[in-house]
Amino acid sequence: MTPIALQRSHINSSTVSCVTVEVEEHTQCKCACEVMSYHCNSNQRYVKRDCECKCINDKEKEECMKKSNMIWDPENCKCMCNKMEETCSSDLKWIREECA
């Protein structure tokens, strides 16, 4: 227990008094980010102030946002097709990054 000094004001009077109360001190908890730099991929940089990984390829994001059939994936820092995967005929493969 840790002693803490408080100023107490009484509701029905102008009397103010100082009191000390004991509060439980938690030592296990810390102020820390859940996301750490090792969570970032090669297209991201760690921003400690915001506790997050941010994409570093801003120009790719800008170009992606101009395309009506594409969306930006902030987790992988990639431009992706905004429609569902399609079934391709034989010898062809769906490429989500190209929407084709």
Automatic annotation (TrEMBL):
Secreted is among the record's keywords: yes
Main localization category: secreted
Pfam families tied to this protein: CXCXC
GO CC list: extracellular region
Compartments where located: Secreted
Origin superkingdom: Eukaryota
The UniProt record lists the keyword Signal: yes
Record's keyword terms, sorted: Secreted, Signal
Name of the molecule in the record: Vascular endothelial growth factor D-like isoform X1
